[in-house]
Design goal:
The chain is mainly α. It is built from 19 helices and 3 strands.
Length: 459
């Protein structure tokens, strides 16, 4: 069996798809002055997503009703599986690495999602090897992208409620700013009102303290707190109070309009770091729009719908379009992997700041998640009593074992600005993607073959 595995890996390593990837990978290493045009990369991404959707839509148009039920069950299984993958990633990173909690949550979001690039590469490998797979798998690509986004957002929301500051440092982590922690967890509406209160208060202080630079004492719980009023703010670890005995509370529905009352709010919470946090609190509507209607998901479903509707009108209707979306797919994928190789090579530099445990996770986790996904797919087939194509196992394993580097980073930029933007991409693209497209896919194909041979459905 090991000999067969090595033969499969060696055969896969020298496919045209991977040779283009290697060529791109060497460009930054050799210092070659070449940059892949961004507009061409965007065009290739659009083409590949539409092509996968188109082919899947054509196949869906010919599926019987029982296959649609099978597809629906698979979607539920895929969603739950990637949800568990995201949660498991977070706790594994917290146990094995020294990442901050917010960075572990961001990486968990990437691994709880999936990779369109890895998926299309696997489709190319399976097509070239003439390995069949279910036509509804492109739908799973879209469905299984969502759980990781939800896991990351929910974990970070919990961290904010537990006192994470605007820089992403949680209590007990180096650099944590306790005076900035409270506001980072409050709704955007209240943050905006407190920010407005600061502006009113600053105007009042400027009128009272023109030409004066003095030190004043504020009454603090448990004693006095001395601070300079250079900018009308008190910075300290405790909640400062102005004369009048008021300290900022959680209820701002009766918001004061006068500068006198506005000055009674907590000033130490109006630090620049907290103002940044206030500006980065997105509404749930925007978040849900990014999760469910990001460009990649829309293009994939658009291709599915167009292919499905077109195929129902007859094979002659789609024949000419198949020349573009089917016949040219392999060549376009080679160009896409050339760019992916360049990007993956550059991302490896970002791993210099992390320990070997993080690198090991990015290489080991794909195997654990993918093989678990293959086992779950087989259990699903056994429970339902239906046969699954070999390629379906492999693609489901790839969807479980890959990590997003397109959709989730865009959502992270909106919802989790406190997290590092480079570490998740270094792991998902620099390591996991590279591993999956070179070594991982043959391993998953071998594992799927073994499990179906030793434990066949209907035996």
């Amino acid at each position: 069996m090991l000999q067969v595995l090595f033969d499969n890996i060696a055969h896969n390593l020298f496919k045209p798809l991977l040779l283009f990837f290697y060529a791109g990978f060497l460009i930054p290493i050799l210092g070659i002055g070449f940059e892949f045009p961004q507009v061409i990369y965007q065009g290739l991404t659009i083409y590949l997503l539409l092509s996968i959707g188109w082919r899947g839509g054509e196949e869906l148009a010919g599926l019987p009703a029982e296959m649609l039920n099978q597809a629906a069950g698979f979607m539920v299984l895929g969603f739950i599986t990637n949800l568990l993958v995201g949660i498991a990633t977070y706790y594994a990173l917290r146990w094995a690495t020294r990442l901050r909690k917010v960075d572990a949550a961001a990486v968990a979001g990437h691994y709880g999602s999936d990779s369109a690039g890895t998926f299309v590469t696997c489709v190319g490998v399976l097509t070239a090897s003439q390995v069949a797979f279910a036509s509804y798998m492109p739908v799973l690509l879209a469905v299984m992208e969502v759980p990781g986004c939800l896991v990351a957002i929910m974990i970070v929301s919990h961290l904010r409620r537990r006192g994470m500051d605007a820089q992403g440092n949680s209590p007990g982590e180096s650099g944590h700013l306790p005076h900035a922690a409270a506001l980072a967890s409050k709704p955007a509406r209240r943050l905006e009102r407190k920010h407005h209160a600061q502006q009113i208060a600053d105007e009042a202080f400027e009128e009272e303290l023109v030409g004066v630079a003095v030190a004043s004492e504020f009454e603090v719980e448990g004693g006095d707190y001395s601070t300079h009023l250079g900018n009308g703010s008190a910075r300290g670890g405790s909640a400062a109070r102005l004369p009048g005995g008021h300290s900022g509370g959680d209820d701002y529905d009766d918001f004061p309009n006068s500068a006198e009352h506005a000055a009674e709010f907590e000033f130490e919470e109006f630090t620049p770091e907290v103002q940044v946090a206030a500006r980065h609190q997105p509404g749930w509507g925007k978040l849900l729009h990014e999760v469910f209607l990001n460009p990649g998901t829309f293009l994939l479903f658009a291709g599915l719908a167009i292919g499905f509707i077109s195929r129902t009108q007859g094979e002659e209707v789609v024949a000419k379009n198949d020349t573009l979306f089917v016949s040219l797919f392999q060549g376009m994928l080679c160009l896409f992997l050339l760019e992916m190789g360049m990007t993956a090579s550059k991302r490896l530099r970002d791993l210099k700041s992390v320990g070997w445990q993080f690198v090991a996770f990015a290489l080991i986790a794909p195997n654990l998640f993918a093989l678990s996904g293959i086992a779950l797919a087989h259990l699903y087939g056994l429970a339902g009593g239906f046969h699954l194509e070999l390629g379906t196992y492999v693609l489901f394993g790839v969807l479980c074992g890959s990590a997003s580097y397109i959709a989730v980073p865009a959502i992270q930029r909106i919802a989790i600005p406190e997290a590092s933007p480079t570490l998740p991409l270094a792991a998902s693209l620099g390591l996991t993607f590279t591993y999956n497209v070179t070594v991982g896919i043959p391993i998953y194909l071998m594992a799927a073959t073994a499990i179906t041979n030793y434990w066949p459905i209907g035996a």
